[in-house]
């Protein structure tokens, strides 16, 4: 607007309450997504520009936005300790801080909290912001690099967000839960444990049987040896021991 003063100050807004999927920076007119996860197609937004003069003048235009439904493996989720309705109101500033500290173009893919809290949008103090970053060549930045940069800039990001929300802010990275073992792997492990237990039991039984047999053989050998010694002839060839035994029996 070539006018000066308030007449030259333009503020942008979306009309018809189109705030669920998109929002707009009132100062620059930049449109960004709030929550388009799982959605695709062309969205038509009514954008209004208004000056701040005494007799306010306005103008409207229709903007078409194409949303690609293709998924990306490079999306990263930042977790803020703020209520979702507060984050949504300040999402433009959150985006600005992330772009400034990461030095990449950042797109907000989704803003959400726990599914059970979606109806009560001010009841949870944890909000997830799903982002996708692009470099200067408009190429997706890998999730690994985005996470690395977020960790490096964690304190700076939290400091700037604290200024925006006027309260202490912590920013964490949501890690994907570990994949559970496949049923085939679980079955293999269980079978292996059962086989090991069976083998140990078999070895224990064999060992017990061998020791028992040895014990029985030793007892029998001692009995036979005792009988042999009873009728043994002394080394000097004397039969006195045998004679004494016979007299005792008589």
UniProtKB/TrEMBL annotation:
Membrane-spanning segments: 185-208
Single GO molecular function: beta-catenin binding
Keyword Transcription: no
A Pfam match: Cadherin
Gene3D superfamilies given in the database record: Cadherins (2.60.40.60)
Top-level taxon: Eukaryota
All residue ranges annotated as the Cadherin domain in the record: 1-77
Cellular component, GO, one term: catenin complex
Protein keywords: Calcium, Coiled coil, Membrane, Repeat, Transmembrane, Transmembrane helix
Cellular compartments annotated: Membrane
InterPro entries, per database record: Cadherin (IPR039808), Cadherin-like_dom (IPR002126), Cadherin-like_sf (IPR015919)
Coiled-coil annotated residue ranges, if any: 140-167
UniProt name for this protein: FAT4 protein
Species annotation: Pedionomus torquatus
Organism ancestry: Eukaryota, Metazoa, Chordata, Craniata, Vertebrata
């Amino acid at each position: 607007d070539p006018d000066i003063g308030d007449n030259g100050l333009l503020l942008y807004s979306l009309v018809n309450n189109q705030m669920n999927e998109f929002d707009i920076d009132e100062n620059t007119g930049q449109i960004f997504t709030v929550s388009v996860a799982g959605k695709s197609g062309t969205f038509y937004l009514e954008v209004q520009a208004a000056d701040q003069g005494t007799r306010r003048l306005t103008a409207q235009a229709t903007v078409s936005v194409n949303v690609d439904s293709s998924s990306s493996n490079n999306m990263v989720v930042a977790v803020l300790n703020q209520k979702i309705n507060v984050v949504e109101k300040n999402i433009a500033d959150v985006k600005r801080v992330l772009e400034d500290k990461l030095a990449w173009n950042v797109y907000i893919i989704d803003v959400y909290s726990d599914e059970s809290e979606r109806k009560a949008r001010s009841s949870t103090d944890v909000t997830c912001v799903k982002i996708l970053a692009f470099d200067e060549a408009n190429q997706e930045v890998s999730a690994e690099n985005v996470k690395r940069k977020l960790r490096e800039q964690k304190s700076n990001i939290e400091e700037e967000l604290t200024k925006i929300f006027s309260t202490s802010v912590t920013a964490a990275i949501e890690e994907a839960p570990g994949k559970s073992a496949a049923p085939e792997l679980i079955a293999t492990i269980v079978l292996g444990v059962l086989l090991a237990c069976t083998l140990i039991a078999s070895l224990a039984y064999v060992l017990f049987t061998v020791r028992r047999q040895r014990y029985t053989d030793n007892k029998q050998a001692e009995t036979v040896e005792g009988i042999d010694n009873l009728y043994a002839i002394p080394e000097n060839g004397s039969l006195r021991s045998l004679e004494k035994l016979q007299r005792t029996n008589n």
